[in-house]
Recover the amino acids of this structure.
């Protein structure tokens, strides 16, 4: 098996590259990433494995995508590359349409065209719980049968890419499954997202801005549980436990409000509660997400293994103990990485 991971320098991508190399199941793991502000090659700088190759390029470049699949004889793809931050999609949706929708189109068309030439490729398309929209306080968690109802521009572009994948699977027989996961936390996440932002601000004595009343609920999963689920999905597609076009949800059954999370971070970092500052809510902010993941348990024998209490402690420690990483992503120093590494 020869694996292409798109977006492998990002948060979940970098954990998935490690998980794939660690599994010992792949002859080659190729990471295609164009290094947007959130793609950081420092996330993988310690990897010294002849099976690993990084290619700096965009999934929107169809020539590059086709060449990579052909030359590296790729048999499996985990497609993570995307613009991923809701707030940025509210500012401008154009990059989201380009990477999330059109980038996915390029990958699908590349697979379709190369399969005509005899290549066989299986793909996991990585989507999100956000495509299901918002739940009321008493609603049951989302299942794979919940209708898609995206409520913000980011979620709309992810839902559109999911639909494209389903349509290519149905129309051209592309062997692809769609995974939808709840909110990830863990090391290496760009500090615009809740956990790293609040941790670093708490440690540095800066304000802790909370949207609205802070009562928005998310189901939090450790990133390594998600990455393991992505690999299990790929293997499930190969061994027939999953059929092309299927959707599979991942979650942790661990619902928490944003305010609870910030309060825990304050406690664990011995910060001052007075740092909390309530700010105007995000427009169109979904109130609650919760994921049902019975199908992943039954079909893939997958379940989350890292309890929140341990995961969040280790995550906070990681951000505190890696000031160089924090500095490099904040200053954009990693953008000089190519220069330093490739001259
Ligand atoms: N973070 C979460 O909680 C979460 C939950 C469920 C699903 N997801 C999905 O998982 C995927 C990864 O999310 P993340 O949190 O790791 O995001 P991230 O922003 O940390 O990483 C995205 C990566 O994709 C790369 N990228 C973006 N556009 C590209 C393009 N056109 N060509 C090549 N590379 C490109 C970036 O450089 C970056 O390395 C996304 O598809 C996201 O929708 C994320």
């Amino acid at each position: 098996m020869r694996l292409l991971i798109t977006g492998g320098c990002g948060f979940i991508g970098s954990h998935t590259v490690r998980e794939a190399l660690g599994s010992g199941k792949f002859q080659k793991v190729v990471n295609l990433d164009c290094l947007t502000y959130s793609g950081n090659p420092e996330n993988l700088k310690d990897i010294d494995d002849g099976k690993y190759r990084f290619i700096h390029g965009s999934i929107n470049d169809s020539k590059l995508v086709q060449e990579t699949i052909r030359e590296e004889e790729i048999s499996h793809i985990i497609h993570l590359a995307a613009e991923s931050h809701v707030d940025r999609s509210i500012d401008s949706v154009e990059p989201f349409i380009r990477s999330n929708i059109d980038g996915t189109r390029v990958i699908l068309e590349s697979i379709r065209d190369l399969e005509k030439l005899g290549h066989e490729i299986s793909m996991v398309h990585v989507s999100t719980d956000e495509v299901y929209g918002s739940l009321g306080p008493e609603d049951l968690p989302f299942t794979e049968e919940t209708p898609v109802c995206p409520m913000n521009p980011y979620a709309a572009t992810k839902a559109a890419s999911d639909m494209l994948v389903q349509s290519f699977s149905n129309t051209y027989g592309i062997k692809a499954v769609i995974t939808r996961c709840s909110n990830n936390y863990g090391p290496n996440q760009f500090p615009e997202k809740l956990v790293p932002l609040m941790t670093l601000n708490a440690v540095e004595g800066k304000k802790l801005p909370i949207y609205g009343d802070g009562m928005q609920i998310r189901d939090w999963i450790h990133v390594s549980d998600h990455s393991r689920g992505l690999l299990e999905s790929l293997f499930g597609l190969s061994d027939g436990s999953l059929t092309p076009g299927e959707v599979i949800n991942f979650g942790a059954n661990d619902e928490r409000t944003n305010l609870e999370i910030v309060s825990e971070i304050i406690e664990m970092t011995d910060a001052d509660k007075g740092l909390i500052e309530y700010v105007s809510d995000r427009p169109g902010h979904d109130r609650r997400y919760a994921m049902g993941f019975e199908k992943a348990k039954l079909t893939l024998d997958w379940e989350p293994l890292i309890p929140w209490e341990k995961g969040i402690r280790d995550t906070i420690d990681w951000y505190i103990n890696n000031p160089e990483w924090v500095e490099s992503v904040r200053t954009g120093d990693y953008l000089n990485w190519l220069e330093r590494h490739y001259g």
In short: The longest helix spans residues 94-116. The chain has one domain: 2-342. The two ends are 32 Å apart (CA to CA).
